[in-house]
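Trying the structure run again after the queue cleared.
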Amino acid sequence: MDKQRTIVITGSTRGIGYGLAEELLKRGQQVVISGRKQDTLDQAVATLAAGYGANVAGCLCDVTRPADHDALLAFALETFGRISIWVNNAGLAHPTANVWELPQQTVDEVIQTNVLGTVYGCRTAINGMLAQGGGWVYNLEGFGSNGRIRAGMSLYGLTKAATAYLDKALAKEVAGTAVKIGAIQPGIVLTDLVTGQFQSAADLEKVKPIFNTIASRLEEVTPWIADQLLHNEKNGAVLTFLPAWKLMFRFLTAPFVKRDVFD
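Done. Tokens:
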């Protein structure tokens, strides 16, 4: 078993964040999960604690508020002591639509959560880790991080392109310190964040054939991410679940290997 470490994950009451928390707990780690709503946070903590006891704790955190990040840091330090890894996972998507058709509230919330929320989390985590003598900060990248462009995804893609730039710049900025930066590219993971981008069930039905090739199930991705987080030693590393060669292999074998990520 890996030595026990403390990992903080924002936006972890469901989806990738929750799945990652569970996988890290399976590996004997201590995990602080967070979310914006008390009821869903309490439920997530209770479910995880039923299997992993006192190794999990939860703290409210709206990532658009800098003070909430500071409170999350203080809570994690008070509960478990030194923080080894901080994962800025919280993010919002939006329905596939032209950017000028999106409601102003959606535009504001996606940018505030995905961009400012990540920046605030990095500032808090890096300052905290400099004070304690080291640690790792990881940011979740996504569609747009590697330059891919798709109509209807301009706003979300912009936020993830910004995250990718931030990751590269931060890795240079922390060079020479005991803090290290990493990026996580999980690929398309079938969660409500992804399926919620489609306006109707009919729209989702249209993309199912391609999704069965390029998308992955949560239970495929989160164990891999957990292992990478615990073993990576390279500052500036980009942990990519589905690199280009692996995606090409899926396309080449699609006629012979039937995948159904919706089953």
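The chain has a mean pLDDT of 91. Worth checking whether this holds up in the mutant runs.
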